[in-house]
Amino acid sequence: MSRRTASVIPGFGLTLGYTLTYLALVVLIPLGAMFLFSFQLTLEQWWNLISNRQVLFSLKLSFGTALAAALLNGILGTVIAWVLVRYSFPGRRIIDAMVDMPFALPTAVAGIALTALYAPNGLIGSLFPFKIAYTPLGITLALVFVTLPFVVRTLQPVLADFPKEVEEAAACLGAKPLQVFWHVLLPSLLPAWITGFALAFARGVGEYGSVVFIAGNIPMKTEILPLLIVSKLDQYDYPGATAIGVLMLVVSFILLLLINMLQRRIQPPI
Amino acid sequence: MSLATLGKNRTRPASRSPGAIALIVIAWAVFAVILVLPLYIVVTQGLSRGLAFFWEAIREPDAISALKLTLLATAISVPLNLVFGVAAAWAVTKFEFRGKSILVTLIDMPFSVSPVVAGLIYVLLFGAQSKLAPYLQEQNLQIIYAVPGIVLATLFVTFPFVARELIPLMEEQGTTEEEAARLLGANGWQMFWHVTLPNVKWALVYGVVLCTARAMGEFGAVSVVSGHIRGYTNTLPLHIEILYNEYNIVAAFSVAILLLLMALIVLLLRQWSEARLSRQLKANQDI
């Protein structure tokens, strides 16, 4: 523990000690318990538990739908962030405020509302000749709702801080608006965009509440990874649940590290 | 995503090229279809059998006991995570030490863990198959499928909220004001109450608001540890699930209206605390 200067500000030992103790009690020990429990399995057993058809299917479904939703939000979120920062138009403030709705709304409420909306007899579902709810498409749309704020909220501040002079310089040098976007704006927005994308993807892979209702939970059709953990727990299959849990935790930890690395690139250390 | 970055001023020319109009229309469409329609569904479905039915649905004993448990879990986890958030932000932003970025990453952990995994870790730690089970039984302590499990799961999922709102802001504010207070003779608590707290209060309010909203709305983690015992281990979101799965759909939406109102209050408080924060930042710049 090396401090930069002999600080006159008190409370280092107290606050750091409390932080570490509380972190250990609430987060680290329970997470460690899961790893400890998973060590009772040999690597081969673990592999067998996660490589059966049902788990592999759920794995593909969860990652596929989360990826599709994150990509869609990568586009929609960029448009919304752009519009909110660059233009003034009627309703701008209310859209800006409501972007956070998916964060504030409990996932179970979102889940039943989206199911009613996209069900075959629902307001949107009845407009389409094919089924939306109870299919992977329905899961993707639920994830689009839940993860919409991520890309918007990571891009917005970066876009707002982007110096107008750089774009103007490019325009003066003869660049067309799209060229300015591709060659000037996009490269500097990319770290923030990927951060938002990764946050949305990570949330999408683990999302449960808003998805269970619209998924319909048909094995080998719409059974997502978190749901598989729940059904294994319902059958008291602790090793099976743990094997999937460890897998999901490792994936989310890798994504978290990636996000932190990117965030350091957005805000270079002074 | 924190208040600190959103509070800055932006300049918006009212340009009206065809491209701009097209983009604005897309934004409006996304807003209406993705964000507003689900809310409209909640309200219309919840009230589709009239106010009397709605009133009955939110006043039945199971709903009341679910509300009580939700409030209990919130009342325990929010203050604990508030104290933690302030302590963590203090340690991380006012001092330099090795391993700081790892600590910040670990504080963020609960955000990226699936809610179901959050529930699972407590089941593994305290459930019937765990090493602690015989001891817990001896003490007659039931944690999983009981209220303590629900509180623990709520504590876990709301863990980072306050810390995450405070850290970026306090990072930006630095330590000069606190150092000045100390040099002028303030003791540690005086410095904290009169210098640090006024500087961060709006971010603190917003962190607490977010923490409360998540605590009241958490579904996945709580669902895993609850066991769904009616009138005993059901929170409001779990109560909605049970009603929905019993095809008591209107009642489910009636209860959902309560949580929707909570979400709207959260958004209003966010606007309010953001406006206060940006006013404060501007005032500080003027000095």
Automatic annotation (TrEMBL), chain A:
Q: Where in the cell is it found?
A: Cell membrane
| Residue ranges of domain ABC transmembrane type-1 in the record | 59-259
Q: Which CDD domains match?
A: TM_PBP2 (cd06261)
Q: What keywords does the record list, in alphabetical order?
A: Membrane, Sulfate transport, Transmembrane, Transmembrane helix, Transport
Matches recorded under SUPFAM superfamilies? MetI-like
Q: How does it sit in the membrane?
A: Multi-pass membrane protein
Q: What does this protein do?
A: Part of the ABC transporter complex (TC 3.A.1.6.1) involved in sulfate/thiosulfate import. Part of the ABC transporter complex CysAWTP (TC 3.A.1.6.1) involved in sulfate/thiosulfate import. Probably responsible for the translocation of the substrate across the membrane.
- What's the protein here called? Sulfate transport system permease protein CysT
Automatic annotation (TrEMBL), chain B:
Q: What region holds the ABC transmembrane type-1 domain? A: 67-270
Principal localization reads: membrane
| Pfam families, per the entry | BPD_transp_1 (PF00528)
Q: Is the Transport keyword given for this protein?
A: yes
Give UniProt keywords alphabetically: Membrane, Sulfate transport, Transmembrane, Transmembrane helix, Transport
Provide the transmembrane region boundaries.
Answer: 20-43, 63-90, 102-123, 143-163, 203-229, 249-269
Q: Where in the cell is it found?
A: Cell membrane
Q: What is the topology of this protein in the membrane according to its UniProt annotation?
A: Multi-pass membrane protein
> Could you confirm whether the keyword Transmembrane appears in this record?
yes
Instruction: Describe, as the record does, how this protein assembles with itself and its partners.
Output: The complex is composed of two ATP-binding proteins (CysA), two transmembrane proteins (CysT and CysW) and a solute-binding protein (CysP).
The record ties this protein, via NCBIfam families, to: 3a0106s02, permease_CysW
Q: What does this protein do?
A: Part of the ABC transporter complex CysAWTP (TC 3.A.1.6.1) involved in sulfate/thiosulfate import. Probably responsible for the translocation of the substrate across the membrane.
What is the protein's name according to its record? Sulfate transport system permease protein
Species of origin reads Pseudomonas cuatrocienegasensis
